[in-house]
């Protein structure tokens, strides 16, 4: 059974950790400005969807900062605002000493993007200015890295889908700063290479871009940063629903990385304005098997396969009882192979271990992972690329990746 990595639990932890700072912050009447753009009725549907996700995110930020005692100045710019109008709004917040931080919700209209560079770097709490910001990456990217880190202490292979986007670049940068060598995938790349990873991070904002052809039971954690509102009021992530139950752990959508981003912003503003030694929020990883443990389980599954795998069952013979509650999956006869269900692929890097078997093994006291020696490359020596499939997956959007 796939275990959820709850971002709501992280946000609840942050709210409890930082609630006592309200007594210090509120009397100061300090502000955090959150500037977002509203769509015009004539805008394309795709743009309207992106701005709807921006609206949801902005409203979550208002709640997070107000919980700490800050005044959240939620500025909604009208459709068609020009550069001069946007720059006036931005410069007024730059000049206001009571405004301690400024967040510009992405994406801004393309013609307004150059104005973002006028943001006061000292107030850039979300790293929009990149190298000019006090922070190495945006809050979403930092949150993603901190969710992945407890699953990655033995330097496993990590794939980042959407690595060229704003969030993706931040994630890749943080991974590399901490000694990882991620597989980077974006538009034009074969996304099936994620099967060669131990951890999958997807930040494309492209609904359903990864499915059962990509996600495998050996994946320790899949971090889905997609957040795309739908016409029926639901939200879709980068991982298709039929693949969400395959990996060992996964961040849900909604309720995964969005709340983690809020927790990260709360921690940043408290550290910046109140307490440089603020306690950071943490993620406790769920149980997982490393690649060696999966290989051992696959060997055991093959060794325990009944003789029927080669001779075929006979109608008159009684069914062979399985071992109590832990039977290995039965291989199909060579003459008539049976395809694995789409939601539980049994082939690929883990051999014969199915989703159900992986869940049983994770709960069965498997030995801890053995850390690699320092300097050892994260990729497994001799691992071959995943076999080609007849259909190519949908590719990430160009420059995509700013998601909730």
Keywords for this entry:
single chain; 404 residues; alpha/beta; 4-stranded parallel sheet; 3-stranded parallel sheet; 11 strands; 11% strand; disordered C terminus
Beta percentage is 5-15%
Beta strands, count: 11
What spatial form do the alpha-carbon principal axes imply? globular
Total helix count? 10
Oligomeric form: single chain
Compute the gyration radius: what is it?
24 Å
Compute the separation of the termini in Å.
Answer: 25 Å
Helix content: 25-40%
Coarse structural class: alpha/beta
Strand order of the largest sheet: 6-5-7-8
- Major sheet characteristics: 4 strands, parallel
Listing every helix as H and every strand as E from the N terminus to the C terminus, the arrangement reads EHHEHEHEHEHEEEEEEHHHH
Mean pLDDT value: 82
Low-pLDDT stretches:
313-356, 363-395, 397-404
Concise overview:
With 404 residues, the chain is an alpha/beta fold. It has helices at residues 7-18, 22-25, 45-67, 83-95, 139-148, 166-177, 257-273, 291-303, 308-311, 355-362; strands at 3-4, 31-37, 71-77, 99-104, 158-161, 183-185, 199-202, 221-224, 228-229, 235-236, 249-250.
Describe the protein.
By secondary structure, the chain is of the alpha/beta class. It contains 10 helices and 11 strands. It has helices at residues 7-18, 22-25, 45-67, 83-95, 139-148, 166-177, 257-273, 291-303, 308-311, 355-362; strands at residues 3-4, 31-37, 71-77, 99-104, 158-161, 183-185, 199-202, 221-224, 228-229, 235-236, 249-250. The protein has a 4-stranded parallel sheet, with helices on one face. It has a 3-stranded parallel sheet with strand order 3-2-4, with helices on both faces. Helix 3 packs across helix 7 (257-273).
């Amino acid at each position: 059974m796939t275990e959820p990595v709850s971002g709501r639990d992280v946000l609840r932890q942050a709210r409890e950790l930082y609630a006592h700072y309200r007594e210090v912050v509120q009397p100061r009447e300090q502000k955090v400005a959150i500037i977002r753009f509203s769509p015009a009725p004539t805008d394309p549907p795709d743009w309207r969807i992106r701005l709807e996700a921006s609206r949801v995110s902005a409203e979550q930020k208002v709640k997070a900062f107000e919980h700490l005692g800050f005044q959240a100045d939620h500025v909604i710019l009208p459709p068609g605002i020009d550069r001069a109008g946007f720059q006036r709004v931005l410069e007024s917040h730059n000049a206001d000493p009571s405004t301690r931080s400024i967040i510009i919700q992405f994406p801004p209209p393309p013609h307004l993007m150059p104005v973002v560079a006028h943001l006061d770097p000292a107030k850039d709490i979300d790293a929009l200015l990149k190298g000019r910001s006090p922070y190495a990456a945006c809050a979403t990217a930092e949150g993603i890295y901190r969710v992945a880190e407890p699953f990655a202490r033995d330097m496993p292979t990590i794939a980042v889908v959407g690595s060229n986007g704003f969030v993706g670049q931040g994630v890749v940068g943080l991974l590399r700063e901490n000694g990882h060598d991620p597989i980077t995938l974006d538009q034009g790349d074969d996304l099936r290479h994620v099967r060669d990873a131990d951890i999958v991070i997807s930040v494309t904002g492209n609904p359903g871009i990864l499915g059962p052809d990509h996600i495998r039971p050996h994946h320790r954690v899949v971090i889905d940063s997609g957040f795309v509102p739908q016409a029926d009021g639901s939200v879709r992530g980068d991982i298709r629903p039929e693949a969400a139950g395959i990996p060992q752990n996964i961040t849900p959508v909604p309720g995964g990385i969005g709340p983690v981003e809020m927790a990260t912003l709360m921690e940043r503003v408290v550290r910046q304005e109140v307490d440089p030694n603020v306690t950071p929020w943490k993620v406790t990883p769920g149980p997982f098997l490393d690649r060696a443990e999966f290989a051992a389980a696959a060997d055991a599954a093959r060794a325990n396969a009944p003789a029927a795998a080669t001779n075929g069952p006979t109608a008159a013979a009684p069914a062979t009882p399985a071992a109590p509650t832990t039977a290995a999956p039965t291989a199909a006869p060579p003459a008539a192979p049976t395809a694995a269900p789409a939601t539980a692929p049994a082939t690929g890097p883990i051999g014969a271990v199915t989703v159900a078997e992986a869940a049983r093994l994770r709960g069965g006291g498997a030995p801890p992972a053995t850390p690699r020696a320092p300097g050892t490359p994260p990729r497994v020596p001799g691992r071959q690329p995943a076999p080609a499939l007849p259909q190519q997956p949908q590719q990430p959007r160009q420059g995509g990746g700013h998601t909730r």
